[in-house]
Design brief:
The chain is mainly alpha-helical and about 375 residues long. It is built from 17 helices and no strands. It starts with a helix and ends in an 11-residue tail after the last helix.
Amino acid sequence: MKSYKFILGSQYFLYFGVLGLFLPYFNLYCYHLGFSGFEIGVLSSARTLTTALFPMIWGALADRFLIRRPIYIFCNFISTAIWAFFLLTTDFWAMLAITAFYGFFYAPIIAFLESFSMDLLAQEKTRYGQLRAWGSLSFVLIVIITGHLIDALSTEVIIVLILAGSLIHSFFSIKIPSAKQVPQSTFSASVKTMLNRRVIIFLTGAFLMLVSHGTYYGFFSIHLERLGFSGSFIGIAWALASIAEIVVMINSEQILKRFSYENILIFSFIVAVIRWSMLYYATSAFLILFSQLLHAATYGAFHVASILYMDKLAPKNAKTLGQAVNNAVTYGFGIMAGFLFNGYYFEIMGAPVLFIISAILAFFGGLLLFINKIMKKNDYPFSNA
């Protein structure tokens, strides 16, 4: 088990290290290329649309034919090869095409990794947060280092660094251990398990939570640059958020023993409302950095509780599909909707107003989960799965 944890930890470390390059800085790179807010939003949405659509297909194939590990390795290598084409162009339409093809193969990687973790951790699933913290640690280190590199060089370094990081991750993905999978009968039978009332309400609330993150993930770095902050400060701000989430993930086992998944999720929505409202008027370094500490709840606690909650709701023969659906609805459709909306209105409204809209979305998402919690009917048909 210790060797499994090391291998899984390394996968999270490498995956989120690459994400630490992409998430804060790729849109900034596009902004420096002269792309408009709408074009940046379209590029981001194209990537997240593939994240929404294709993990479910890959996940169904993996569960049906018991080929999760081969697909995971294959998609790592192919997506890395496609990313290399970004070195050859700065044209918007060419980059959009590359993004779409890249996303098709990149899409299932994190959902599959989450499924590997749930299966291999078995009865130790409450320790998931400690394992996932390696990804956050990597994110912290990368965003700080990259912020300094951008100040010293330029945003163009992002493309090369992502290619290098993805290549390393691809070779390390070969070490991922196989996990026992239970064959499923048909794709349609598995889909029906996702139509449980609690699953639908949870996914709707989670969708709104990720839509509310659209301003942050898509335009936070650009917003800070417009406020006059340097690339180094932008890196520090993103890193501080990840440090906050690491604290939660390391202590998640104790948190999960004291609070239910639903209570943790509802609390994270409350904090999201506070965080986005704060960024409406925050212009000082102190307030901006303080708001980043709230990432501990809005991402750290929310993410851990979401993964475990979906694992509780999904049956044994559809664990991969369950995580794929969760990832698709949230980090796929949710982020896509957030990127499109923010991309269109960024130049019109500006980031502060968009953060207020984010707070409103988070409020309604939390309200949905609260209503779901207080309903008396108990329908966790796969809670012992």
